[in-house]
Please model this.
Amino acid sequence: MTPIVAVVGGGQLARMMAAPATALGLTLRVLVESPEAASALPAHQTVVGLPTDPDAIQRLLAHPRPAALTWEHEHIPADVFDAAEECGVPARPGLHALLFAQDKIEMRTRMDALGLPNPAWTHVDTEGDVEDFLAVHGGAGVLKTSRGGYDGKGVRVIHAPHEAADWLRAAADGGPRVLLEEKVPFDRELAVLVARRPSGEMRAWPTVESIQRAGVCSEVIAPAPDLPGDVAAEAARIGEAVAEGLGVTGVLAVELFLAGDRILVNELAMRPHNSGHWTIDGAVTSQFEQHLRAVLDLPLGDTAPTAPWTVMANVLGGARATLTDALAEIGDPGAKVQLYGKGVRAGRKVGHVNVSAATRDEAYGRAVAAAAIVRDGGAA
Amino acid sequence: MTPIVAVVGGGQLARMMAAPATALGLTLRVLVESPEAASALPAHQTVVGLPTDPDAIQRLLAHPRPAALTWEHEHIPADVFDAAEECGVPARPGLHALLFAQDKIEMRTRMDALGLPNPAWTHVDTEGDVEDFLAVHGGAGVLKTSRGGYDGKGVRVIHAPHEAADWLRAAADGGPRVLLEEKVPFDRELAVLVARRPSGEMRAWPTVESIQRAGVCSEVIAPAPDLPGDVAAEAARIGEAVAEGLGVTGVLAVELFLAGDRILVNELAMRPHNSGHWTIDGAVTSQFEQHLRAVLDLPLGDTAPTAPWTVMANVLGGARATLTDALAEIGDPGAKVQLYGKGVRAGRKVGHVNVSAATRDEAYGRAVAAAAIVRDGGAA
Model:
């Protein structure tokens, strides 16, 4: 019997699990919101429904039972974990770990408890709380909803208490709690990806640099260039400390701020992550294969890079409507294009391009150029 | 609209096209002999039927029409090409090219016409023809049926005319014609893979060495080590001459004998080939992505290796019944396992392992060791 891995999610992350699932002889059963979802086409088995629908979850967990249940996003209702437990299907990462990727206040509290480097932060209930924090942190702060944020949503830079009024009111009405963080004067954003399996084995990929534009990841450079001192080692240590301290199973992404040689935890994701797409073409083991290995408690694969430099450039929705048309126009034979099979909307992540090269400048220039062709048809 | 590529074949070659089809944003529609076929699980769309069934072919070609029709094997009835032409779907490689992979007499005749290096050979109708050939070629020869051979079937070493009697009788009764080739005293077997697209662009991967055991490929070493003189360049020249001379579209494999520094054409395959599985993990562009690019007339990808050495070791059916069990037992994190989702039978190709390394010995030893674990559970 082929082991089944069940995945909640119709997006590109579940989609990109299909290739390594096939290679490993697994069956990938995916819960999708619609038959047109990005992951539905390559999935081996498809269940249509929402994670909030108990019937859909039962179909996802039906016989033959999955060997593991996992996610491509953190918005998983607690009921799903109960249903999995009743069926004897291990849910990985588990709710106790996933909580820290779902809720930023829980995450910050836990980072503090683990002695890991947080920005200054506080939970805020009132405009008075906001005023007090701004007063001692230079008059500016980053306001966040504790839950539900993604790609710049649920995050806002503020300079005065009244700018927090709507979210504080929503929180008082039972909405997500609100936290306020120092506006870290960071120079660069880094990310470390670590996989951990239930029996404890962990493997980290090289620390990468993530270039953000308008709050969305634009490019990732692997490895992160010219890191001061022992920042690379410290990033890896933080990644493993989070994975172990939170009992993560699967792939964990820790997004980090680098300010001078000070390194701070920004966000966590417990799933394959945009900052790890370079591993598909630039590492011995991709984050997607590794996630499957980890949730099945299989030995983890080698995370070594296969080239001196790999750069991933995201393709956000732009002028071109039919992305496959770009395949005829890209003149770079080493541009590794990955399309997500999603309808094009402005700013939506619809694909990415990886380029590996001997120099960082070459990898960066070629990846960005090819992504621009996919997006707009040549207009960089 | 997502371009559709239609593929005839339920085996591992069609199966391994699914991952690059997904990456390129294509839809892979596969004709399989049964829903349990190796390619059925990862295929994006499945049509169940045989290539000899006109109704199945119509469903394979149905609206939305495929952008191209291709094959994972050469046993394609001529009717299929007619059906594709009527629908306006390009069939690649076309019948005029595929003929030379279907029929060894046509192939040898054509190699001679192109001035490419054949072993001595002749078409034989009678035991007298056999006797004449053996008399001038050292009393031994390799008897082949012109059509239908595969993995050592339809091939026989003979030393006397009567050993050809059954195949000659079958040929006289309307079966496949028979040819007799010199028994080449080869030292090694090489293979060169070339992709060619309709507009003429060609790209070859580095020439590899294929290690055969009992007529079946056991390991492939990329690149072929320690080739004398200009054998590597000559192999690439032969590959491109065959691709161009025969008007191949898609991936072409030319299997070669190396005898001293003499190089001879052994067999042709017009599809991804076992000797190219190393490209999945060891080259910038895999043979499966390249085949899709070629049959769609898209620019071809870079064929450069990503490591100094990559060795592919086939997994033939052995003691282990459930191959995924091996994933827990392989202690080598750099062993890239590919399982074909096929039932295990003795000697059947059911998977392979690629290992890339800095030295040939390391890559070879590790690939063979991991393949042995997949096959038998540790008994090398």
